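Quick one:
INPUT:
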């Protein structure tokens, strides 16, 4: 894998401190709860990027595919947790 592709695989992890800082400035009591989906997304993006690197040769298509798949998996996980949170409240 080329150096540029390695860098692209780690971009979401590089932005994690900035996302945490931005969320913390908005409301400090919810920062941890909102950063967890970002970290989950970053990890899945890295895993999918490295897995799909063998099969997809176009860098743009690789970025879009891994980003969309990681976002889909993160949304599924978030919906699962939110559904259990609502059932615990009700």
């Amino acid at each position: 894998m080329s150096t540029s592709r390695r860098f692209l695989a780690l971009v979401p992890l590089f932005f994690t401190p900035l996302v945490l800082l931005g969320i913390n400035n908005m409301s400090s009591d919810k920062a941890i709860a909102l950063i967890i989906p970002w970290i989950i997304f970053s990890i899945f993006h890295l895993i999918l990027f490295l897995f799909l690197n063998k099969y997809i040769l176009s860098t743009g298509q690789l970025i879009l595919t891994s980003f969309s798949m990681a976002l889909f998996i993160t949304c599924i996980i978030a919906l699962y947790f939110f559904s259990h949170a609502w059932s615990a409240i009700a």
